[in-house]
Specification:
Blueprint: E1 5-10, H1 16-27, E2 30-35, H2 42-55, E3 60-63, H3 69-74, E4 79-84, H4 86-95, H5 100-113, E5 118-123, H6 134-153, E6 156-161, E7 164-169
Parallel strand pairs: 1-5, 1-6, 2-3, 2-4, 4-5
Antiparallel strand pairs: 6-7
Helix pairs in contact: 4-6, 5-6
Length: 173
């Protein structure tokens, strides 16, 4: 695979996770799914289960809501990693009151050191109105910063809207 790091970005419900899963599936490597969502309520549990059904059985799933560095360090060059998603990972750290700059640095270092190709899914949250409260503005700004850092490192950046991919950086296969 020619792309070491692929970033798939889009809004909520844009089809970015489905597109990323299909992209990874087509590569033909052993697949690792790093899941960052936590089932805090029934709605989120149902969403996680829907994603699991959609992916099917041929994935090795690692639940890593906070520490994605460990599974990334274990990935082999004959595998491909799908990290879904950076937005939930950031939310988990924000709610845990982690030192965000330090965690971002750890994420970027882990992605850079990973021996396997990686596809990271993330949300674009900066195309709407300015949030009304300080926590939401902090989240929006932190997500924008993480997305910019990921895009800078990525070989391929794909925006997904209405299920359709658009290469922002690099070439779609």
């Amino acid at each position: 695979m020619q792309n070491k790091l692929t970033l798939v970005i889009g809004g909520a419900g844009s089809g970015k996770s489905s597109w990323a899963e299909n992209f990874v599936f087509q590569i033909g490597y052993d697949r690792i799914y790093i899941a960052t969502a936590q089932p805090w309520d029934d709605e989120m549990q149902a969403k996680i289960q829907a994603h699991q059904r959609q992916r099917g059985q041929n994935w090795h799933t690692v639940e890593a809501p906070m520490d994605v560095a460990a599974p990334l360090s274990e990935a082999r060059p004959d595998q491909i990693v799908l990290l879904d998603c950076a937005t939930m990972w950031l939310s988990n750290h924000l709610l845990a009151e982690s030192e965000l700059a330090q965690e971002e640095d750890r994420l970027i270092a882990a992605l850079t050191a990973c021996r396997a190709p990686i596809v990271v899914v993330t949300n674009e949250v900066g195309m709407s109105v300015v949030p009304e409260n300080a926590l939401a503005r902090l989240f929006r700004d932190a997500q924008g910063r993480v997305n910019r850092r990921l895009a800078e490192k990525a070989d391929l950046v794909v925006a997904v809207m209405a299920g359709l991919p658009l290469a922002l950086k690099g070439q779609l296969p």
